[in-house]
Amino acid sequence: MAVPKFGIVTSIDHSAAVKAAGWDFVEELVQQYLQAAVPDAEWSGPKRLARAVLPVPASNALLPPELKVCGPDSDPAKLRDYVATILRRAEQVGMTTVVFGSGAARTVPDGFDRNQARRQIIEFVGVAADLAARHGVTLVAEPLNRGECNIINSVAEALVYVKELNHPNFQCLVDSYHLWLEDEPLENLRQAMPWIRHVHLADTEGRVPSGESGKHDYVSLFRVLKQAGYDRMIAVESPGFSTEAGIRSVGARVLNFLKDAWERA
């Protein structure tokens, strides 16, 4: 039976607390960990990883807000140089998955032609996927709710890009927070499962998953993953886990809740 790895999106520096709570890995933000703007000689990623007590196989928020994918300010050469640095460093620290959410960077400007924006995204992910392949990394498209971005707002829409590019190093992510905010049917996820390579979890209020609100059906979500044989990473992404104190306070309880939901799925 497929069993996923459960992790927390937080600082690598909190890895001891994450491990003590029973989790398997840490996922950190690209800007904090891989730091493309920092010269190689000053980049602290490998030293920070050496001090960690858990692996850091994934990173998210690929692009900073000012580095635009869509619109008249998009600069493909700058994007390529930036992503080349990120993916080279990802390989250096043994990372296998990088998340392309980056809502501010990929938002289509008001009045800009959406078909052109779509072509710009395809061009960008095509270049990025080729670079990712060189470094043994998979880039995953993260659907974001319409309050954060105005394009790629569902698993179904992300899958359109993944299928069009048809590149083994560009695949899909599902994030329960965005899935539930957009009221996207689980059938869309079921159809996308052959391309799902990463999972994020959070309640829609931004809190860590607990089941206490009764609003979210983790068992049904996990059932779709489980029936497809999903055994990859599942990372909780919530402000409640941004501090070591938060992880120590509820980390073990949340993990027990998720593992129980997985068993019941």
Overall pLDDT score = 97
Quaternary structure type: single chain
CATH class: Alpha Beta
Describe the main β-sheet briefly.
8 strands, parallel, barrel
Low-confidence stretches: none
Number of strands: 8
H/I helix tally:
11
CATH architecture: Alpha-Beta Barrel
Query: Structural class, from secondary structure content?
Result: alpha/beta
Order of helices and strands: EHEHHEHEHHEHEHHEHEH
Q: Helical residue percent?
A: 40-55%
State the end-to-end CA separation.
12 Å
- Which topology does CATH recognise? TIM Barrel
State the fourth-level CATH superfamily. Answer: Divalent-metal-dependent TIM barrel enzymes
Strand residue content: 5-15%
Spatial sequence of strands, sheet with the most strands = 1-2-3-4-5-6-7-8
- Count of discrete domains: 1
Shape: globular
Gyration radius (Cα, Å) is 18 Å
Can you describe what's shown?
There is one protein chain. The protein is an alpha/beta fold. It has a single domain (5-264), classed as Divalent-metal-dependent TIM barrel enzymes (TIM Barrel). 43% of the residues lie in helices and 14% in strands. The chain is built from eleven helices and eight strands. β3, α4 and β4 form a beta-alpha-beta unit. α4 (76-92) packs parallel to α6 (114-134) and α10 packs across α11. The longest helix is centred in the middle third of the chain and has 21 residues, at 114-134. The relative contact order is 0.15.
